[in-house]
Every structure is written in structure tokens, then in C-alpha cells.
Amino acid sequence: MRHPLVIGNWKLNGNKHIVIELIAALRNELSSVVGCDVAIAPPIAYLDLAKHYLGGSRIALGAQNVDTHLSGAFTGEVSAEILKDIGAKYIIIGHSERRTYHKESDDVIAEKFAVLKEAGLIPVLCIGESKVENEAGQTEAVCAHQIDAVLNSLGAKAFENTVIAYEPIWAIGTGKSATPAQAQAVHKFIRDHIAKHDAAIAEQVIIQYGGSVNADNAAELLTQKDIDGALVGSASLKADAFAVVVKAAVQANQD
Ligand code: 13P
Fold this sequence. Notes:
alpha/beta; 45% helix; binds 1,3-dihydroxyacetonephosphate; 8-stranded parallel barrel; TIM Barrel
């Protein structure tokens, strides 16, 4: 049985004050909530501060990116070793914003997946199609291609204890989430695609949905059979809304 996982991707938002206040509010909202793994991924400069204020809570620390190199002359980058040292657990890779603005290729993302596994960190591999690809009926082909970059280089076993986040680009930051049925169909496709290589691995991999998840639509999305949690952007910056999403994941797992 898969354990639900909800991660807040804060993206490029916050400051010291917000980090401290938001974590305090989240701890308060989620203090009695069990049955869902929860993490927040603040901007990199605040990871250490966040770790400190998360101390003793069940909320884990995530990060939004990692470099493929472990150390050396790579100005501006952060390594898996540093993220591990600082206490991060879930590392988002391949987010569409990085694929678009930083021209990250499937091959580079597969390398990032490999370094995270090697370091004992949990990759959160983001995949998803653009609006144009969606309208051209290419959703499954795009998702398969993005997963294959990892499957073909590392094998299906690499997906053990990892997370895939299906984030249709047209749903990110638009307020227009995929419908529960749409998302479920793609999640099932992703699981079946991995199952062609290894059924047991496919059965345990966590597949999150991301893209305009909020307090109003979380319950319906999270009750879908193959939706194991959510990668939440803007709603994760509001403690009450994020807590509703987490509680919806707990409830969905009990139904
Ligand atoms: P929004 O929830 O703001 O649409 O962002 C989703 C996302 O990109 C999470 O990684």
C-alpha cells in the first residue's frame, strides 16, 4: 500500500520572516495529522533556516533542484552531498520551469536522478506535457519519453523508493487543474509504463499530481486510485490551504 505524500514547492518565494512564520503555521495546522508524508521545498538559501524551524516536527525538508556534480568548479550550483548534509530528503528534479528556463534535457535530468539515488536522497521526477502537446494528443508519448530517459539509463529498479510528479504544464499556475479523470488516466498510464519493466516497482512508486492543486480540488484529485499525493505550488504558501490538501490525502487513503 502506497503512503500518500504531499510536497509544497515554494518556488522563488519567501524571505526569512515568511519561512519562520509559514513553518510555525504549518506545524500548528498539521500537529495532529498522521497518515500522510509531508515536505516543504523552500528556496535554497533558506533550507538551513527551514530545517532548524522544522526540528522535531514530522514535516520533511525538500529542495527544488540539484546539480549533477558532487563538488568542484561549478559556480552557483548545489550538490546532492550538500543537500544531504543540510538534511533535505526529497529533491525535485526536471520541473517544467527548469526544463524551460534552464534548458534542462532529459539526459541531464536522468543524471540528476542518478546522483540523488547514489546519495540516498529521494528524487521527485517531474514530467508533463505542454498545452500544445496535450491538444495534439501527445500526453502519453511525452510522459513515456521523459520516464524512459531514466528507465533506459538506470533501469526500472532505480524507481524504488522514488517519486514521480505528473505536472501538466498547462495546469501549472493557471488555476486550471487537470480533471480528476484526466489526471487518473495519465497516472495509470505512467504506472503501467513502468510495470512493463517491473510490476513490483511500478506498484510502489509514488505518483503525485501537480498543477493548480488547492483546497477546493484536492479531495477529488486525491481519491483517484493512482494519484498518491500532490506537488503543490502557490497553495503551499498558505498554511491553511496546504493543510487542507494534506488532510484530503489522509482522508483519501482511508476511504
Ligand atoms: P501551482 O500549484 O502553483 O500550479 O504549481 C504547481 C507546481 O509547479 C508545483 O511544482
